[in-house]
Amino acid sequence: MFNLLARLFVLGLLLAASVAHAQSPRDSLTIGMVEFPADMHPFITNQLVRSYVHGFARRVVTSFDINNRLTCLLCTEIPSIANGRAVREGEHGLAVRFTLRPGLTWGDGVALTSHDIALGFEIERQFNPEPGLIGVQEVDATTYIVHFNTPRYDFDRLSPDPIPAHLEEAIFRAAKDPLDYGRQSLYNRAPTTPGLWNGPYLVAAFTPGDQARFSLNPYWAGTKPYFRTITTRVIENTAALQANLLAGDIDTAWGLTFDQSLALEKDHGDAFELAFLPSLSTTLLVPNLANPALADRRVRQAILHGIDRKTLVAKLFAGRQPVADGILSPAEPSRNAAIPLYPYDPTRARALLADAGFRPGADKYLHGPDGQRLSIDLTGASGVRLVELVEQVLQSQLKAIGIELVLHNEPPRMLLGETVRHRGFQGLVMFSWLPGPDSIPHSRFHSTRIPSAANSFGGGNYGGYVNPAMDQLLTDALAELDPARRQDQWNRIQSLIAEDLPVLPLYHPAAVFLQPRWIRGMIPPQSLNLPSLAAEEWRPR
Q: From CA 124, how far away is CA 127, in angstroms rounded?
């Protein structure tokens, strides 16, 4: 009897504690993720997940807002020719003047100045140089001029972003080369250093490949965040991510697959609010053009003709994600609707492969003139169930036209941080990219942007595409200030990409925003911004 009473007493205490916890305001938030940044430096790799994580602790000079308008985050005014902040310089150049907002500081209280912008330019050009951007002139502590030796239509958004000179300059100057600097940088060796950050939060704790915890930045001058701490925690399996969410071990998730999001909306709509919004993202296959089979454009065309993308999006995405006929989504106003198309046509695919010299073998696969089976590796992100389902569909459909697709998946951090960046995939690699609005894809398709040691593996031309005509089009489009003429060049760029197929577009993923119903502010009215860039606006209802 005593044991029973004791148990009831303890149970009562636990229930009371649970009710008290449920009624008390929650000032911490835990976000589950299936990816984690390969490094924490702002410039070394180009990863969407790193931009998401940085959104809590880092602010850049300009960004597009949720209404697709360029806006100042650190500056006072967007430069333009009309307001006199952008002027011609010499025969072909431009001088663009930016002014930092007064009172900006890093997370250790040190002032953020033009010198931090100048250092940011020096470091960024080692990894991802902007064509035509040749220097930053410090006028005073808050004013600087960005110099171009050729016109750039997007000069208004090309201010280099700041790097804290009081912490990083000496490391940068002492480094043997850019990659050595990346290893020595405090962003990677000691990311909890407060002075590295200038956003509403600081990185308070960091475990590589596992989690990051953010705490309030005492020097943040903007809207005071409600949540005292935010933790991003890696769960490298989407099924486990969903299970953790439903069990309450995490408050929300970033990286759930589309089918999981649909299931949450259907079965747990009382606990979670979801929005499926158009985005600028494209999921695609990037062929390594050093592969002899994939170097033949007819093979790339055959692969795209052999994939029934309409059926794929209908079955896996309930038809809510459009087929990608090109690299730009229907949400991008610059999209060219007149590009060459590749409808599902297995007969045409087989004819192209036959023209390329491949003949059926006894094993029902195609074989080349050397007798080797037409076998192509496909590398994707492991632990993401929807990726695996897409791969299985591709594998089955390409087998029907005689191509063997061999799957080799890797954890997302390895795939994007090492394999793709160093062009370590042998055949095709599948991932999604999210271009900025009205963004000429110079870094994706110009031959100088093929990742190599010479550019510190900072380029985005992962397939190794080389076409002098494309190089010239990209260069000309970047320098064209007249919108109508630039759109004509942009149309030709899109058409040439569709003809050459340096990438094979599959579909345009909708942006899925997940918000627990006890929180407001996580779902923007449009999908063009990272939700973490508005973390200071997140509040309990």
A: 5
Determine the topology of domain 69-166 in CATH.
Dipeptide-binding Protein; domain 1 (3.90.76)
CATH class of 282-507: alpha beta
The token pair that represents 319 in the structure block? 């038809």
pTM of the predicted model as reported, rounded to 2 decimal places: 0.82
| Domain span(s) for CATH 3.40.190.10 in the chain | 28-57+199-278+511-540
Mean pLDDT by 10 residues, the chain (541 residues): 35 33 67 88 84 94 84 96 95 95 97 98 93 97 97 95 98 96 96 98 94 97 95 90 94 86 90 85 95 97 97 86 91 90 97 97 93 95 86 96 95 83 93 86 95 87 97 95 94 97 94 88 66 90 87
Radius of gyration of the chain (CA): 25
Cβ 423 vs Cβ 288: under 8 Å: yes
Is there a contact between 95 and 85 (Cβ–Cβ < 8 Å)? no
- In the chain, CATH 3.90.76.10 covers 69-166
Main-chain phi, psi angles of 520, to 5 degrees: -125, 155
Q: Where in the chain is the domain with CATH 3.10.105.10?
A: 282-507
DSSP state of 227: -
CATH code for residues 28-57+199-278+511-540: 3.40.190.10
The closest alpha carbon to 122, from 60, 78, 165, belongs to: 165
